[in-house]
Amino acid sequence: MKTRELVIQASTSLRSNLLRSWLTTMGVAVGVFSIIAVMTALQAIDQSVATGLSSLGANTFEIQKYPATFFGGHGRNRFINRPDITYDEGLAFKRLMQGKAKNIGLKISQSGNQAIYENRSTNPDVTLFGADENFAVANGFDIDTGRNLIENDILYSRNVIIIGHEIRNTLFPNGENPVGKSIRMNGEVYRIIGVFIKKGAAFGQSQDNLAAIPITRYIDHIDLKRSISITVEAASSKEYQATIDQSTGSMRVARGLAIREDNDFEFRTNESLVESFRDFQKTISIGAFIISFMALITAGVGIMNIMLVSVTERTREIGIRKSIGAPATSILRQFLLEALFLSLTGGLIGIILGIGAGNLVAMAFNLPPLIPWLWIVISIAVCSAIGVSFGIFPAYKAAGLNPVEALRSR
Predict the structure, then answer these.
(1) CA–CA distance, 127 with 335 (Å, rounded to integer)
(2) CA atoms within 13 A on the CB side of 341
């Protein structure tokens, strides 16, 4: 029998029990859906990592109180009980590192702020930075309109502010130049001196929904007790590691640590962020694969069960076909095709739903949508293997039926 005829017969047999066929495919669909959805979301996040790292600037690292990824749990108290990095310690660090780094910026931040101009206001989710004159350069921000903070702004704790592109569009939607205008935030009035150039999103977070004021004004008027972060830009990639080593010694001196005392600060580097994300991605991927594999094995058992039932129901049909000369190989191939169709149909449904769900997660975090081609190919191959592996026994059973005994069955 030709392959085309086998395909037609197999599809006709499956359509004759449509509900049962669809229910059988759902088991495969669930297994494939879970792996495709997770991998789509993870790959979308992975694509944003490079963008997110660029927010640190080239050859740049940060010194802060907590590790780059701090989720609590084991050792949580060790980090929480550390003393905050104070502004005075930051200034001492800058003096010690003078001439050893290209740029050193001090910053402190707080989320959940709202900016107001006349009768317009932003959502209460603006991140407000207290920053020095090196904040923009060290953190990869450029000025679109106006000017950057200068030393006198910091020295005299001026009530000036630089706003992000998103705040500009919200408060000044008609193209009005915001420089020189005054806005209110946290009960304080600030005069806009500049607008940061648009940067887009990184790690699902907008880099344009922020504002920066002099760090001295932030400490005096908003929050004195919050730990600061220090952003250090090395002179070149060759001097990057040497700058980290020098920063370690300078920070220990600035913090007044004795020789035998451990560091009570952390470095946030591009490499640490990538490593943390890769470890997280690997753990999630392994977990998703194990769960999906178990679901697919269970679905394969379901396919075998349904195919065995089908063999029993179609015993007389098989007997008639054999009695008129149908070879056992054509019956074997037809039942294998039916099992393969069930598995691949479920796999395709799972792939489509998984891509949709994964990209919905990505879009919710402002990440670019994508199609995980590698995992699609892997899923199709696994579904094909499941269909053949669990369909081979029912197919052999059907092909091995004695035509005389089959025709006697009811």
Answers:
(1) 62
(2) 21
CB neighbourhood size of 131 (10 A): 29
Q: pLDDT at position 95, please?
A: 93
The helix or strand, by DSSP H or E, that contains position 47, with its residue range, turns out to be: helix 18-54
Residue 317 has a pLDDT of 78
Q: Please give the backbone phi and psi of residue 157, each rounded to the nearest 5 degrees, phi first.
A: 50, 50
Q: What is the pLDDT of residue 36?
A: 87
Question: CA-to-CA distance for 372 and 375, rounded, in angstroms?
Answer: 6
Confidence at residue 23, expressed as pLDDT on a 0 to 100 scale: 78
pLDDT digits (tens, 9 = 90+) for 176-196: 899 999 999 988 999 999 999
Q: What per-residue string of b and e applies to 2-23 under the rule 16 or more CB within 10 Å gives b? A: eeeebeebbeebbeeeeeebee
One-letter amino acid of 211:
A
Residues forming beta bridges with residue 104, ordered by sequence position: 232
What letter does residue 224 receive in the DSSP assignment? S
Q: pTM to 2 decimals?
A: 0.63
**Is the Cα torsion angle 300, 302, 308, 311 positive or negative in sign?**
negative
Closest CA to 129 of 191, 190, 210: 210
Q: Are strands 210-214 and 266-268 parallel, antiparallel or unpaired?
A: unpaired
Cα dist from 210 to 126, 130, 195, 213, whole Å: 5, 11, 10, 10
Q: Residue 261, exposed/middle/buried by CB under 10 A (0-12, 13-18, 19+)?
A: exposed
Which stretches of the chain score pLDDT less than 70?
Answer: 1-18, 47-58, 68-77, 201-205, 224, 270-274, 276, 365-366, 404-410
Q: Are strands 210-214 and 126-131 parallel, antiparallel or unpaired?
A: parallel
pLDDT at position 404, please?
Answer: 66
Interacting residues of 276 by C-beta distance below 8 A, sequence separation 6+: 68, 69
Per DSSP, what are the bridge partners of residue 231? 62, 105
> Which residue, 137, 33, 21, is CA-closest to 358?
33
> Is the Cα torsion angle 195, 199, 203, 205 positive or negative in sign?
positive
Q: Which residues contact 83 (CB under 8 A, 6 or more apart)?
A: 255, 264
As beta bridge partners, residue 155 has none
The shares of helix, strand and coil residues in the chain, as percent rounded to the nearest 5, are 55, 15, 30
DSSP H helical segments within 314-369, as ranges? Answer: 315-323, 328-364
